[in-house]
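Input sequence (299 aa), recorded before submission:
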Amino acid sequence: MHSRRIQWRCMKTLYRLYLLLIAFPLMASCHSAPKATSTDYTFTSDWFSPVIPLWEKTFASFAEKEDFKYLEVGVYEGRSFFWVLDHLARGKNAEVHALDVFPDKIFYTFSANSVLSKQTSKIHVHKGYSREVLPKLVNHKFDMIYIDGSHIAKNVMLDGLLAVELLNPGGYIIFDDYEMMPHLPLPLRPRHAINSFAIYNSNHLEITHRGRQVIFRKRNFQCPEILDNFVSQVHEHCYYWNQYQLKNTRKGLYDKRGRKISLSISEEKSLLSYLVRPSKNLKLPKRLKDLIWSTQSVD
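Predicted structure, token format:
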């Protein structure tokens, strides 16, 4: 009798467990699971939180963009990546692209965080070196690109030059660790590469923030490039140099509609000095100064 009672209790216990195994998935399917919060993710370090107020202020409008596209170079465990996913990539057709070499242990953490986000359909992973992967993304255009991979100057420069070709007009490209490792030689510091990148891309990009991070915005208006001619962009105006003295090509200052702006000899001389060594303190003729600076913040 005693053994039968024990047997009966065991059967009841097993039956209850069986019901729980069936009922739990059904109950879960009746309620849509909430998205992960920042406290749900697993991270072992935090270099990102100090810049969140800056990112909230600068990039908040992207949260309203239905097809927002984001690319991060150097993702690590994904602290900044998943912040963008949760706060900016809210549109139905939004995409967030993660590019990293992803060592096994790091990739395991990133993958676990991806599952926790409950938004895996928006996540695109590119595993490999940026110098090899970025050229393969030539058919993609992004609204926001974050460069935080290698900190060796030549690699930072290469990442920037490859990534800027993938940036939409009006989009942003962000470099991290601008002030990092000031005691090291220039080839081992991001700062020198970022400064050079700013010079090389001054026709197309404007700096909106410089601090621990440097943020560039791609101008909506881009000067048309002409074969065998050099062009410098002065906000919404284009100066064509015609360095090779070719016939039937542009020379001088043009507005964005392609109309030539007549300049006196002194005005053109002042403009060329400004283009070679840009400075707001340069004493420009008033008409030329008004022409240049009146469109400074207009794209």
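Checked by second reader. Residues 17-33, 295-299 have pLDDT under 50 and may be disordered.
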